Amino acid sequence: MRHTIAVLVENEFGVLSRVAGLFSGRGFNIESLCVAETTDPKVSRMTIVTSGNDQIIEQILKQLNKLVPVLKVIDFTGTETVDRELVLVKVNADNGNKAEVLRLVDIFRAKIVDVAPRCYTIEMTGGEGKVSAFLQMLRPIGIKEVVRTGKIAISRGA
Amino acid sequence: MQMTGAEIFVRALADLGVDIVFGYPGGAVLNIYDALFKNTKVRHLLCRHEQGAVHMADGYARASGKTGVCLVTSGPGATNTVTGLATAYMDSIPVVVFTGQVPTLLIGNDAFQEADIVGISRPCTKHNYLVKETKDLARIVREAFYIASTGRPGPVLVDMPKDVLTTPAEYDLPKEVSLRGYHPNYEGHPRQVESAVRMLLTAERPVVYAGGGVILSNASPELAELARQLSLPVTTTLMGMGAFPGSDPLCLGMLGMHGTYTANMAISHADVILAVGARFDDRVTGKIDEFAPHARIIHVDIDPTSIQKNVPVDIPIVGDLKDVLRKMIRLVKGKKEAAAFREKTLAWRGQIAAWAKTHPLTYKQGKGKIKPQYVVEQIYRITKGNAIITTEVGQNQMWAAQFYTYDRPRTFLSSGGLGTMGYGLPAAIGAQVAMPERLVIDIAGDGSIQMNIQEMATAVQYRIPVKVVILNNGALGMVRQWQELFFQGKYSQTCLPQIPDFVRLAEAYGAKGFRATRHAEVPDVLRKGFAAEGPVLIDVVVDPGEMVYPMVPAGAPLTKMLLV
């Protein structure tokens, strides 16, 4: 089962390699990993999407907690969350399909951020399902390049 | 007062009560060696290889309970510590290794004697540091000792660039450590402890499974008291040897791959297992799906990651064993439930006694070649169980565990988790430094001893009177045993025809050498060797055909033991 885990860490030298090394060293999966500073510049927040059975997830959470620079670990499974991913995608934009691209951009509330002859660069944010659906719709038109941030998540409510 | 980083470092060690450092100098740590030269509080022991230095610090820590300290230079000095770090990490031994590093500005430039030791050692340390500024040095030294010795202990590495050691700064050693991401939990949850005792008292066939954590937590007296209050049979892991008195009638001996028949049968038939400071290692459980099929499990450990890692646990308790066992004792001591429990488990103890009677650990010393088990037994007799035993890895290690009885903690020092050949001699030196009055013996094999034999020079230089008994079978015995049993006797690369003359080797180092080739002379040779002054190597030529039994083949359940 897939889990989205937030990890608050000391924003210090080598902390990313400690977390990443823990996953690789113990044979855990990382499907995506996002990391950036929080409001406290001494603390970074990672969002990790991983998968495994209950026993593996329990180990992942415990092992993360055991790392000295890890301050807090939150497993979002079973809780109400908002999650988003940002995707930048370059698609073919010939005279024949420009209109179709624009229509999709409109439907998915995406944005065209760069225009070149025969190519649009589109920015889109959304939940996992929306991002996948958008890319699926663009695929027949011709995706030249795509870059995704990986998922970030935050709990709902105060 | 302004001091250089090197002076701050040495001062911090002294202020933290470090009395000895095991080390090896080099370019990146010259300033520290200069500061050490002027210092009178911190003694330095010059090893002959950095791996030896870490094992010495490790042996020192295991024998004394204090934190072992090691100091080496950058690059190869640092990488040579990796096996020692991994050994200490697997066995949860408090060791702090300080490494020199190239100057900050050169880091990443492939400078001379540069190695990314923080990156290399990350997976085999509890935590590690790169010191970036001299003002942080004292605090980091303080934190390193704190992390190494608290919670589940383990090795910590501190990497110190040369410029950090030469730059001056104020000396400011913090009194307290505050790490917001590190809070080991010592107190076992009272309600969990109550549930555990309730479950334990429902048992008809209880077994305590005690590991190295009991020794690390200094909880042997508590374990003994609980076991006696409830007449609980106790089996120990290799790491737990001595955690519970081996000569106690309740002691079942070691369990697992080369455990006793009694211990393996008891754990396999138990209905409640109280696991204390043990981690259900594969060498202990055998085939995991068939491990202790009838048992409900109570698992007490200070490290939450040890619990539920390999086996499902019914009652997990995170906490220090000393605290948890005391709470358990309080709940049963003098209670009539305890008396009733002892009564109802009488039949179980009868069954255990019957197993012990029909299948004791055994060997036959005929008139022919010397049996290695006989040698270990003689060592026990001669030392009356009062020695500190270290081992190498392989057959020597298993026989040392099986045929010497350990009644006290910190008397059996062995690389259990990593299985590091070459551990025994340097560990013995470290233990002897910690316990100068005790007799320290390394029970070795002819293969393992050659992996860190260079430390004989250290022992001779500092007159550290360790005694090494080599069970010399001319082979890498344990690997050959597997080839004998599972690879149709094809001894691929396990015979050692070119073995040095250990007696002359000892003499070349300036130590004393003895040899026994007939079983009748073994007791005398051992006695002479142990009585001789200074470091001693005793070469005992043993039967090369002898194998370690019982044995649970890898991947088999504990009940499928090869008995002889």
The CATH architecture of the largest domain in chain B is 3-Layer(aba) Sandwich
N-to-C terminal Cα separation of chain A, in Å? 27 Å
Mean pLDDT of chain A, nearest integer? 95
Total count of helical runs of at least 4 residues of chain A: 4
Summary of the model, kept short:
With 158 residues, chain A is of the alpha+beta class. Chain A has helices at residues 15-25, 54-66, 98-107, 128-138, and strands at 2-10, 32-37, 43-51, 70-75, 81-92, 111-116, 119-126, 143-148, 152-155. Chain A is elongated.
Can you walk me through this structure?
The complex is a heterodimer of chains A (158) and B (564). With 158 residues, chain A is an alpha+beta fold. Chain A has helices at 15-25, 54-66, 98-107, 128-138; strands spanning 2-10, 32-37, 43-51, 70-75, 81-92, 111-116, 119-126, 143-148, 152-155. Chain A folds into 2 domains: 2-75, Alpha-Beta Plaits, CATH 3.30.70; 81-155, ACT-like. Chain A, domain 2 (Alpha-Beta Plaits), CATH 3.30.70.1150. Helices cover 28% and strands 42% of the residues of chain A. In chain A, the strands form 2 sheets. In chain A, strands 5, 6, 7, 8 and 9 form a 5-stranded antiparallel β-sheet that branches. Chain A has a 4-stranded antiparallel β-sheet with strand order 2-3-1-4, with helices on one face. The radius of gyration of chain A is 19 Å and the shape is elongated. In chain A, 23% of the residues are buried. Chain B has 564 residues and is an alpha/beta fold. Chain B folds into 3 domains: 2-170, Rossmann fold (3-Layer(aba) Sandwich); 190-358, Rossmann fold, CATH 3.40.50.1220; 372-541, Rossmann fold (3-Layer(aba) Sandwich), CATH 3.40.50. In chain B, the strands form 4 sheets. Chain B has a 6-stranded parallel β-sheet with strand order 3-2-4-5-7-6, with helices on both faces. Chain B has a 6-stranded parallel β-sheet with strand order 11-10-9-12-13-14, with helices on both faces. In chain B, helix 3 (50-64) runs parallel beside helix 5, helix 3 (50-64) crosses helix 19 (424-434) and helix 11 runs parallel beside helix 14. Chain B is globular and about 70 Å long. Chain A binds chain B through residues 9-10, 13-14, 17-18, 21, 25, 55, 58-59, 62-63, 65-71, and chain B through 118-119, 122-123, 126-127, 130, 132, 147, 179-182, 303-305, 308-309.
